[in-house]
Amino acid sequence: MALIFLDLDNTVLYKGRPAPGIKETIKQLKNNGHKVVIATGRNPNLIYGIDQELGIEDMVLANGGMVIFDNQIIWENYIKTETIKRMMDVADKEKFDLVVEYLDEYISYRKDTSLSDDFSKNYHLDIARLDHNYYPNRIVFAMVVFEDEVVNKITHLFPELQFNKSSSFGYDINPKGDLKAEGINAVIKYLDYPIENTFAVGDNFNDMTMLKAVGHGIAMGNAVDKLKQIAEYVTTDVNDNGVYNAMKHYNLI
Hints:
The chain is an alpha/beta fold. The protein has helices at residues 22-31, 50-54, 81-94, 115-122, 148-154, 180-191, 208-213, 225-230, 242-249, and strands at residues 3-6, 13-14, 17-18, 35-39, 59-61, 66-69, 72-76, 98-102, 106-110, 129-130, 140-145, 161-167, 170-175, 198-202, 216-219, 233-234.
């Protein structure tokens, strides 16, 4: 049986909602005995019950920052508190927009432009509220910045972080490492699953390590070119039964 990791936005979700036919596809996969896992850049409070709607209990969240499997947390990798404070100080000094993704909230630390709102709208998320405070005792999964020139200017100041372009709208900032691949590897190790029976489907830059971590990496038809170049198979678009056609190609349904 296969272990299948599915990205959310523009892979399983189209304009923030389950793509046509995806619920039926997931149900068929599960009925055939396969294990389906969400693997997303979203943190827990940005899932909005989509996991329940899709019938998927297990999740790799926050680009690998947290893994929930068998109703327990089996992997965690948060950004250090001191690093959060330094990033806030640099954002204030250089005057760039900054979003902080806490365990329980999605906040704009600085919002001098419409960039953070544009980012939220692109992914059909709630607009991040403005809160110019530092919370030293709160868990932070990720941060988001939005401009290439900002990333070019500050990356060297944060060697402990990874700046990953999630879309044309912004950069996810996570702890240095292999992002989604670390979460996926935690699941594979937890299950002691044979790598040749593992699959991953995604569409964007933050899915690159994920596709490399599994036995069969699949890019959506609407994926960025860099992801298509490393994929074993390229399927159809998200609104054209992309996941279903990929699973059909591999005879999983």
